[in-house]
Design a protein that fits this description.
By secondary structure, this protein is of the alpha+beta class. It folds into 3 domains: 58 residues, OB fold (Dihydrolipoamide Acetyltransferase, E2P) (Beta Barrel), CATH 2.40.50; 89 residues, no CATH class; 63 residues, GYF domain (Dna Ligase, domain 1, 2-Layer Sandwich). The chain is built from 5 helices and 13 strands. The protein has a 5-stranded antiparallel sheet with strand order 5-6-9-8-7. The chain has a 4-stranded antiparallel sheet with strand order 3-2-1-4. Strand 7 and strand 8 form a beta hairpin. Helix 4 crosses helix 5.
């Protein structure tokens, strides 16, 4: 097989959402994020491409000396965080047709994957292309003074705390407790009246109805209204379904899988 050599790459600035470059000695490193969520990264000889880089930046209406640019149309939002004595700025990039992770105070703690790095910025990816939840973010280090100034200029919300972290699943635990109490009462009444009716009569054999086999100890995530929760055991899902906490449009997937399935595959009696 003959190895081919690429002589040039042309990028249409119309579809560029973010562009980052870094010069390392004689090499110019390029990372490009497109508005449809695709990315491109490559290295080129710096001396031969500086003029072409400046020309490309001029098409984006940016200063020719800039090394990066992010188009406002693809910015979902920005998060300012502090870890130890380090301040960071996360710029979340939106991609049409994908579900983004919950945008709250916990977003910086998500398992981001580093896919490109320079002295100026880190390019982070959550999930992978083709998965239900997928997102890119730009992480840059800022000083405390710059962080406070940017927050003030943007009129950002101050000192946010996620509701789930403050009171995790409080409503769910309360509803599950009510469901369990109701089921215990119903079972007790059924046993009491059944024992009275069958007293003194020969015991007839009980034939159990066949139920679908489910993997023992399996756990499932739920996807409803673009929100993911779980994992839950099959028993917990059955209780939630009985209590009316799950709607018919809810999807689920096993804990060790990325494929979303209708909930009826796990709970056939889902309304």
């Amino acid at each position: 097989m003959t190895h081919s050599t690429t002589l040039g790459i042309e990028i249409n600035p119309k579809y560029v959402g973010a562009l980052f470059t870094e010069r390392m000695d004689k090499t110019l490193r390029v990372f490009c994020y497109f508005t449809n969520g695709d990315t491109s990264q490559f290295d080129v000889p710096a001396a031969e491409n500086l003029d072409n880089l400046h020309h490309f930046f001029s098409k984006l209406n940016m200063d020719a000396t800039c090394s990066s640019v992010i188009i406002n149309e693809v910015v979902l939002g920005r998060v300012y965080s502090r870890s130890a004595e380090q301040h960071s700025l996360y710029t979340l990039l939106s991609t049409p047709g994908t579900v983004l992770p919950p945008f709250n105070a916990d977003i910086c703690d998500l398992p981001w994957r580093l896919c490109w790095q320079s002295q100026e910025a880190d390019i982070l990816e959550y999930g992978r292309s083709g998965e239900p939840i997928h997102c890119f973010a730009i992480r840059t280090q800022v000083t405390e003074g710059d962080a406070l100034r940017l927050i003030k200029d943007a009129r950002a919300f101050l000192n946010p705390v996620s509701c789930q972290k403050k009171q995790p699943y409080r409503w769910l635990y309360l509803n599950l407790a009510l469901v369990l109490v109701g089921l215990a009462t119903l079972i007790g009444l059924t046993v009491f009246y059944s024992s009275k009716e069958t007293a003194g009569k020969p015991v007839a054999p009980v034939i159990a109805k066949e139920t679908p086999a489910l993997p023992p100890g399996a756990s499932y995530y739920l996807l409803s209204n673009h929100q993911i929760s779980g994992p839950y055991t099959v028993k917990t899902l059955a209780l939630m379904n009985t209590g009316g906490l799950i709607n018919a449009a809810t999807l689920c997937r096993p804990e060790n899988s990325t494929e979303w399935l209708p909930l009826t595959r796990v709970l056939p009696n889902t309304p």
